[in-house]
Amino acid sequence: MAELPEMGRVRVPARVRRVLLALSGLLCAAWLPAQAADALGDVLGDVASPDGGIRVEMSRDAGGRPTWRLLREGREVIAPSLLGLVGEGADLSRALAFAGADPVQVVADDYELASGKRRFNQYRANRRVFRWKNAQGHELAIAWQVSNDGAAFRYELQQPVPRMRRWQRDAATFRLPADARAWLQPMSVPKTGFARTNPSYEEFYLQDVPVGTPAPLDHGWVFPALFRAGADWVLLSEGMLRRGDAGSRLLDGTRPGEYTLGFPDERETFPGGGATPWIESFPWRSAWRIVAVGGLGTVVDSTLGTDLADPPAVQVASVPGKASWSWPLLGDDHTVFEVQKDFVDYAARMGWRYTLVDALWDTQIGEARMRELVEYARGKGVSILVWYNSAGSWNDAPQTPRDKLLDHAGRQREFARMRDMGVAGLKIDFFGGDGASMIAYYLDLLEDAAPYGLQLNFHGATLPRGWQRTWPHLQTMEAVRGLEFATFNQADADRTPDHVATLPFVRNVFDPMDFTPLAMVKLNDRVQRRTSAAFELAQSVLLVSGIQHYAETADGMTQVPEYVRQFLRALPESWDDSRFIDGYPARYAVFARNGGGRWFVGGVNAEAAPRTVTLEAEAFGGGIQRGSLITNGGDAPGFAQRRVEFAPGRPLRLELPPVGGFVLQLD
């Protein structure tokens, strides 16, 4: 019912017409199944990428619900799906009238990141805002930005909407082809796991499964989520959480290929706070929902996660680097002065910037001796990072120091104390989930640490979602089932090869990831490692983190050939550029990264059969390429080195054994 101009011979007032129109829409919507989004009305407007390869179309279904679909090179990649926002006292998801679309605007943003997979970034997109109104005249704006590597949307409210301070549901859906394949990490159940520390984004991915596979833990799927439909790859994520936002997740839809958005469990909160998002002030805008689209190389080379993030909120130095670290292979008992002093010496020998002193330093070393350790490290050209427990009552983890950072006054005391001691940064662990109040706690930590120049690393944590651009002192976050799990039991160690070969294609695409790689000699006496030494070494290039904490011990490093140590010394502290070379999630991965004007290549084969990978000179600028190659071999604990040369028309072909790996440093 598009309009109700008259009833019989009586002219109907405009206010009554609006009410009748809204009632008709509500009645239609009440009987309308989710599948009704298939029945698109006329296209109300569209917006394409600068190169024209990607196009988003906006429509309205019979229930007055905004709908969208995405096409790549004319192929439908996302079928008609829903959009809309539901608040406590207002439903802006149905019975809406289309109020027009703004002209397309060009978005151009050039920015620099001190750490990440690319230092200098260029974002070019076309932006268009589509406007909708409910019967009361309240407007919902849906802003799209479409670039050559994908699209993103967010909701915007320019004017206050009565009783809309807290919102309850994002009506957005994502409908992929029913025959698509997926790489998805289940969201864990809150208050489970070690000392009730879940959710921490630390489950294994389900790899190459049909869309529609039910979430095994019944709490949905974490971002990012990867899909393949024929020649098209899609990575779904979200970006730029601000105060009041909650971290969302994907939920299974009503049919294969359909996913909806869910908000956090009510248990994922900071004490006294809520889980669902709130609106601090108007005008307001939601987080971005990101849809990276293209060939596999386009998707994994994308920087949409930071392209859509806010510019730096503070003026603070970002100081990336590499770090020695005793805990993953030695445990809590070795957080003592003499061991940590040895690890400072180890970092100095390797030319690494940091040593991380983990949990229990406050009781097993103490403040006085920690000051001594910091001074000793300073004399060696090494900076000290220290561990803190984030809790709070949301977990039962006993490791200390804890309960020190829960309010502004406490954070100021601790941050000032650390700065005065000469500590360079903090690793803060065991957060409580994605609730809006917990997201606000992350932001409080970032804001309060900035004046003290402290570098931050969040563990047992949510996904960064582009925060590393807005808060440059955020060097990394865990949000991954890292190497530590392989040290706990054999089942986790058995999964390491395919797990590592999945991460560059999903978790590590947009955001830094503190996987803590590199156990080249062994894990421990309880667990047998399932990767080769060369596979472990390749992770130093494959996996990106602002501060890269290496698990290998000082003693283990003495057991590898000198050329391996030289390679690790030569690795840059940050990358200027990155490039996907070859691979397939969970099977094999080959990536090239450039730092200081030199290319480094790392590759792994996660499968039980050998694999050949080919490096073309054109990928590195053409001409004759020469470099030093480290592969699997007979030098203990399993390395070999040789010089290689390749050129246009003469590619370098490498035979990788099962769970094998390689690194290549070009001259």
Q: Which blocks of ≥5 consecutive residues have pLDDT under 50?
A: 1-36
CATH fold annotation of the largest domain? Beta-galactosidase, Chain A, domain 5
The largest pleated sheet is described as: 11 strands, antiparallel
Can you count the helices?
15
- Helical fraction equals 10-25%
Mean pLDDT: 93
Annotation, overall tally of beta strands: 38
**What is the number of independent domains?**
3
* Strand fraction: 25-35%
- Rg over CA atoms: 26 Å
| Sheet/helix structural class | alpha+beta
Shape call? globular
Distance between the termini: 70 Å
**CATH top level assignment of the largest domain:** Mainly Beta
Q: Give the second-level CATH assignment, the architecture of the largest domain.
A: Distorted Sandwich
